[in-house]
Amino acid sequence: MKWARFSFQGKECTGFLRENILHVIKGDYFKGNWQETGETVALDEAKLYAPCRPSKIICVGLNYRDHAAEMKMELPAEPIMFMKPPSAVIGPGEAIVLPHWIGRTDYEAELAVVMGKTAKNVSAQQAGDYIFGYTCGNDVTGRRLQKTDGQWTRAKSFDTFCPLGPWIATEIDAADLEISLELNGEIRQQSSTAQLVFGPHKLIELISRVMTLEPGDVIMTGTPSGVGPLTEGDRVTVNIDQIGALSNSVTG
């Protein structure tokens, strides 16, 4: 299923998508205690929001083999972890805002894992039971700040620097999904999640050793090769097989 947050005629709703029709529910889809209301909305008549409201976004750097080769860096022995604040999240169709003073800012297409249950010290073998589903993410990065700061918090944390969406796809196997990014209609990144160094289940094991993951929290699993700069006026679209397309404009 594909679960979404959206508004229609000024009313905020949650629901699931079936054949381009959004079916409105009441209740919490993370807890499973939901019911259909009988209301439906055509997809093209709704405004989609980010499909979850994470309390935290945990990101993983240098987690694609092709990206490590591109950067001429060795594969990490353990995941390189950093975080984005919830205030960085935007949904499909919203604008990525580039502060004029930060210099080069890059796109990074990513598979985002959305947690469905509270997880602490969960093994990789158990991790699938804690995943609600997957969505598309863009780990927008102030590249100059990343280099000059020596750590990544400021470069990754600006408002609008974490587009998510368009919905959460459940019941899919994330082991070998095609992932790509288009910038103004031209493909700039193209790879597969089979290139991941640490897959979603292993990441949950390693991250949940450190911190408790809550329903709705997001793990950004890293980006493949082909990262590059954004400029004002661009349109950037992340595409992931079996999930969908996340498209955002870029403004200054």
UniProtKB/TrEMBL annotation:
Domain Rv2993c-like N-terminal: 1-51
Presence of keyword Isomerase: yes
Gene3D superfamilies: Fumarylacetoacetase-like, C-terminal domain
The entry's keywords: Isomerase, Metal-binding
Alphabetical list of SUPFAM superfamilies matching this protein: FAH (SSF56529)
GO BP annotations listed: carboxylic acid metabolic process
Segments forming domain Fumarylacetoacetase-like C-terminal: 56-250
Stored InterPro entries: Fumarylacetoacetase-like_C (IPR011234), Fumarylacetoacetase_C_sf (IPR036663), Rv2993c-like_N (IPR018833)
A Pfam family that the UniProt record links to this protein: FAA_hydrolase
Protein's name in the database: 5-carboxymethyl-2-hydroxymuconate Delta-isomerase
Annotated organism of origin: Dethiobacter alkaliphilus AHT 1
Species classification: Bacteria, Bacillati, Bacillota, Dethiobacteria, Dethiobacterales
